[in-house]
Design a protein that fits this description.
Layout lengths: L1 H30 L5 E2 L1 H11 L5 E8 L4 E5 L5 E2 L5 H13 L8 E3 L19 E3 H10 L3 H10 L3 H10 L6 E2 L7 H7 L2 E3 L1 H12 L6 H11 L18 E8 L2 E8 L6 E8 L11 H17 L16
Parallel strand pairs: 1-3
Antiparallel strand pairs: 2-3, 2-11, 4-8, 5-6, 7-8, 9-10, 10-11
Helix pairs in contact: 2-10, 3-5, 3-6, 4-5, 8-9
Length: 317
Amino acid sequence: MRVSYILAFITYCLSFSVIAQPLQVQHSNVRRGNVRRTDVKLERKLASLLDGFQGDVGLYVRHLRTGRTVAINADTLFPTASTIKIPIQCGLFAKLAAGELTYQQELIYRDSLHYDDGIVGSLKDGAKIPLSQVVMLMETISDNTGSLWCQALAGGGQTINTWLDANGFRQTRVNSRTPGREAYRKLYGWGQTTPRELAELLVYIREGRAISPDASERMYRNLSRQYWDGDALSQIPPDVKVATKNGAVNQSRSEVVLVHAPHGEYVFCLMTKNQKDERWIRSNEGATLLRHVSALIWQHFEPRSTWKPVAGYEKWW
């Protein structure tokens, strides 16, 4: 008799777990913003805009409130160029949260750190600078020497990649100066990611889920100060808050942007590779595409906006 009761109880528990598990997964998906639907109208307009691009292009768009998305080659790997500085910042803040570094601690620059002649790379040997300023220069003006310094302070590429993997970002990786990833570096350079993952990493920070709410807020503030605002950002009104990072190498132009639009925040990431146009001028095909895509998305989500870049604005780049 007791055996039958026990078997019945076990059967009941198993049946409950089978029923409950999908509900838990569904709840997790809603919380992480994974239940989405394609914005067919926007997808059609963007696909037409991307058609004929001389190179490979990927695009991901998500309206955070409505869940409307567009994904065009959104899960294809692309070179990160300087957008890898978002993951580097995450790895660095993990060290800060662990108490291994302090945000305002004084660092001493050495000539052995020199990579290029940006602001950090132009410091004299022995110069003192707070870590917070190096991070700001990494995200705001994309200082390469400062960024590689931050990568080393974060524990190196392997440590950053471990954090990315643990947080569900399994396609985004640091390659440069990372043992075992030399072959990937030859293909993608400093780092690799997909438009979807990079955009969702920015949302992850925005929602306070990267490291901790306070660390996420500090990182998000850093990403909201962008010196290089001549491409995607130039098509968004200057009084609208944005968080962003861009990157460029000879055959690639990329930008990820989270826009605090009046009718709801949206994020988009456009990435290119194998571009035929390698010119370092404003009319570069990839840079031009960034501007056109940004303008189209803004007008789609904010159809009543009458704002347009003022005539002659482009002369400042």
